[in-house]
C-alpha cells in the first residue's frame, strides 16, 4: 500500500497528517522527539504544569475552530487587556467590564490621552470588525512604524503597547511586519487569549488523538531526504509517494535545499512556585519601565490545574536566551512589579528557547509555497505566520497540495 510520510509531529505535521488521513490517505508521521507537539509541549513537575515557554492560545484563530474541538480543550481565558507597569504606577488597560480598577484605568487614559483612546478605538474597529483582507493589505512597515503612523503617544506606546507586543512577537524592537500585528490583534480583539486547563500540550494531543493508531512514530529522526525517500537516524529508509517536511524552518532547510532557513526570535521563561498569588488577576502584567521582562502572569489563577492546591505558578518571560545567572534580576524585578517579597519563591524551571519564533520582517510573505515539486512538500509556521494559526494552516495547505497532486479528493472519508 503506498503511503505518505510526514516528518515532524508539531502542530503543522499533525494538521497535515489529520487532513491526509481524513481523505483516506495512509500516513506515517516520523517525529524525532519522544512526544508530539514540537514547540507546544507541557511538562508536569511536582504537580505544576509547565508549558515549554509561556504561550497563549487565541480562540479566535480561524484554523483552531476548523481543526480541533475547542470544547475539549477546556480553555481558560485571560482577562482581555494588560496591566502595564509604568514609571509611576500600574496602569490597567482592560475593558471596563473587568471591574472598577479596570474602569478607572480606562477613564484615566481617556482624561489624559484622549487622542490615544480615539486611535485605539479606530484601530480596534478596523481590525476587529473590518474584513481580514484589510489586515493583510500590503505594507512595508514594521510594527513600531505602524504605531507611529497611528499617532499614538510615545508614552502609551512605550508603557503599554511596546511591552505587550514585544511579548507577542518576542521582538522588543517591534521590527515585525505590521500586517502580522493587525492579524494577531484582530484575533485578540475577537476572542482574547486562553490556555487549555490541562496545559498547552492539550492542543497537539487532541490532534494526535484524532489520528489512527500507530500513525506516529516517535524517536524517529529524519536525517536525509532523497527524492521521496526518507532516511532515518539508525539507517532505516521509508519510501513514499509524497513527503511532507513539517519540522522547524531551520531543519527543513537542512533536509530540503529548496527551503530558505529563517532567522529566529528567542525567549526564556522562568517558572516560580509562590505560596500565594501576588496579584489575584487573570490579566497579563507587562513591564513598561524596564527592558528586562516581557511579561508575567499567575497561571494558576487563569487555570487552577497549573499548580497543586495551595500554591501559585508564576510565569515570567524575558527576551532572548537567558541562563540562570539572570534569575536573581528577574526575581528582583518581579518583586517590584507585584509589590511583594519574592525571596521565598522557588524557581521550578527555566526554559531558554533559541528557536522560538521565526522572524517576520516587513515584506514577510504571509503565505509561502508548500509544494516543492516531485512529491516533496513543506509546512510549518515559517511558511505562513509564526504562530499556532500559521503552523495549523500551513499543515492543511500542504496536505491539500498532496491530495490535489495525487488526485485523491474523491476518496474523502467521514
Ligand atoms: C516560547 C514560545 C512561545 C510562543 N508563544 C506563542 C503564542 O503565544 N501564540 C502563538 O500562536 N504561537 C506562539 N508560539 C509559536 C508556536 O508555538 C509555533 O509557531 C508552532 O508551535 C510551530 O509549530 P510547527 O509545527 O510549525 O513547528 P514545531 O513545533 O517546531 O514542530 C516541528 C516538529 O518537527 C520535529 N522534528 C524536527 N526535526 C526533525 C527531524 N529531523 N525528523 C523528525 N522530526 C523532526 C520536532 O521535534 C517537532 O516536533 C510560541 C513559541 C514558543 C517556543
From TrEMBL:
It comes from Nocardia speluncae. Residues 11-403 form the Amine oxidase domain. Signal peptide: none annotated. The lineage of its organism: Bacteria, Bacillati, Actinomycetota, Actinomycetes, Mycobacteriales. GO terms for molecular function: oxidoreductase activity. This is FAD-dependent oxidoreductase.
Amino acid at each position: 500500500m503506498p503511503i505518505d510520510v510526514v516528518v515532524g509531529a508539531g502542530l503543522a505535521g499533525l494538521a497535515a497528517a489529520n487532513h491526509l488521513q481524513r481523505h483516506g490517505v495512509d500516513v506515517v508521521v516520523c517525529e524525532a522527539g519522544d512526544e508530539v507537539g514540537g514547540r507546544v509541549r507541557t511538562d508536569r513537575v511536582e504537580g505544576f504544569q509547565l508549558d515549554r515557554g509561556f504561550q497563549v492560545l487565541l480562540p479566535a484563530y480561524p484554523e483552531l475552530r476548523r481543526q480541533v474541538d475547542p470544547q475539549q480543550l477546556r480553555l481558560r481565558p485571560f482577562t482581555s487587556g494588560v496591566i502595564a507597569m509604568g514609571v509611576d504606577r500600574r496602569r490597567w488597560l482592560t475593558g471596563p467590564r473587568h471591574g472598577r480598577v479596570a474602569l478607572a484605568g480606562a477613564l484615566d487614559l481617556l482624561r489624559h490621552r484622549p487622542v490615544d483612546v480615539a486611535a485605539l478605538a479606530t484601530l480596534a474597529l478596523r481590525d476587529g470588525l473590518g474584513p481580514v483582507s484589510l489586515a493583510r493589505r500590503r505594507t512595508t512597515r514594521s510594527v513600531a512604524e505602524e504605531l507611529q503612523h497611528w499617532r499614538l503617544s510615545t508614552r502609551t506606546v512605550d508603557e503599554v503597547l511596546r511591552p505587550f507586543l514585544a511579548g507577542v512577537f518576542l521582538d522588543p524592537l517591534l521590527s515585525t511586519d505590521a500586517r502580522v500585528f493587525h492579524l494577531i490583534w484582530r484575533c485578540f480583539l475577537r476572542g482574547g487569549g486562553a490556555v487549555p486547563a490541562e496545559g498547552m500540550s492539550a492542543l497537539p494531543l487532541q490532534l494526535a488523538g484524532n489520528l489512527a493508531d500507530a500513525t506516529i512514530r516517535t524517536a524517529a529522526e529524519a536525517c536525509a531526504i532523497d527524492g521521496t525517500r526518507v532516511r532515518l537516524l539508525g539507517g532505516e529508509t521509508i519510501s513514499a509517494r509524497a513527503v511532507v517536511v513539517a519540522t522547524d524552518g531551520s531543519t527543513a532547510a537542512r533536509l530540503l535545499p529548496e527551503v530558505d532557513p529563517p532567522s529566529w526570535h528567542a525567549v526564556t521563561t522562568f517558572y516560580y512556585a509562590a505560596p500565594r498569588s501576588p496579584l489575584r488577576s487573570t490579566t497579563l502584567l507587562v513591564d513598561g519601565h524596564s527592558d528586562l521582562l516581557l511579561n508575567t502572569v499567575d497561571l494558576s489563577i487563569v487555570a487552577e490545574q497549573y499548580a497543586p492546591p495551595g500554591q501559585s505558578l508564576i510565569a515570567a518571560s524575558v527576551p532572548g536566551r537567558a541562563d540562570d545567572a539572570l534569575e536573581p534580576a528577574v526575581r528582583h524585578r518581579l518583586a517590584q512589579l507585584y509589590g511583594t517579597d519574592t525571596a521565598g519563591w522557588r524557581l521550578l524551571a527555566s526554559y531558554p528557547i533559541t528557536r522560538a519564533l521565526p522572524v517576520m520582517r516587513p515584506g514577510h510573505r504571509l503565505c509561502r509555497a508548500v509544494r516543492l515539486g516531485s512529491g516533496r512538500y513543506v509546512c510549518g509556521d515559517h511558511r505562513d505566520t509564526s504562530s499556532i494559526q500559521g503552523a495549523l494552516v500551513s499543515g492543511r495547505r500542504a496536505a491539500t497540495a498532496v491530495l490535489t497532486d495525487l488526485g485523491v479528493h474523491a476518496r474523502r472519508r467521514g
